[in-house]
Design goal:
This protein is an alpha/beta fold. It has 12 helices and 15 strands. The chain has a domain of 240 residues: NAD(P)-binding Rossmann-like Domain (Rossmann fold), CATH 3.40.50.720. Strands 3-2-1-4-5-7-12 form a 7-stranded parallel β-sheet, with helices on both faces. β2, α4 and β3 form a beta-alpha-beta unit. The model has no long low-confidence stretch (mean pLDDT 94).
Amino acid sequence: MTEKLTSIRDVTQLEEILSEPSPVLVRTLGDLGGDILVLGVGGKMGPTLARMAKRACERAGTRRRVIGASRFSSPTLESQLQQWGIETARCDLLDPESLAALPEAENVVFMAGMKFGSSGKQWATWAINTFSPGLVANRYRKSRIVVFSTGNVYGLSPVVNRGSREQDVLNPSGEYAMSCLGRERIFEHLSREHGTPMSILRLNYASELRYGVLLDIAERVNSGLPVSLSMGHLNTIWQAEASAMSLQSLAVASSPPNVINITGPELLSVRSVAKELANLLGKSVRFEGTESSDALLSNGQKSYQLFGVPQIDSKQMIEWIAAWIKKGGPTLAKPTHFEERGGNF
């Protein structure tokens, strides 16, 4: 079991762990018919999610295609996916002809989106986050669709409430969060219009060793930089468990869409996380600012009732990340900017 590992050796082992399907997922995909198409497979989470789907299907003994679609700016990634047994398709989701050329698939996972750089290219952010969803929902109106969204649509919530729930009033701040709510509304409209079963996943910080909020804090501690307390609390979930939940949500898709928060069960203090990392890294820690009474937080109880409680806790993630940094493990060099309170990414 991965939770017994004290450290993760290298990228090869990390990607094995991140794509390891749970027994429940194997059963779920074994019972589910049809090919699986992952749109936007080239993102941070897409490759290991697609590989997890492929491995789960193989273990279930089901013969089906898993296809990853992307513009593939990196030819290395396309080759890696193919080595894992995942078919690839080059596609620009804003181009109707390119989208029409994609293969049919009974199951679609929509992971495409624009976040970082959105403050400088608001027009592109809205096009990618709201126009392409309409094209995809029309193209795959006869499929079941899982839509990746974000906890940013809730806006900040009081820490004492321990996270926003799916039925809470939405209050997105900034053009990125507003465009993500636009994505949800477009998919919802076309789900209701065509009867397309969908699950909309409001993900709040998937973490692994090369990317995520915990790595952001660890890198600042390790470099001797102050840790911001402007967003004093957070949720996060181990990426493998977020991927498994996301694929399992194909089985609970509905019309109108089934909205599900995906995040870990712990309410984490940034101050406490930084101190724990400092201890593991043998560093001192400095802080700047003070904690606010609100933060970007989600409550994942609905997902735990549907898919089970995550097994990898924050302590395990923190220990793995500290060990990874100490050995000089590679990162994606893409900060999450989790401390941003105004929604400007």
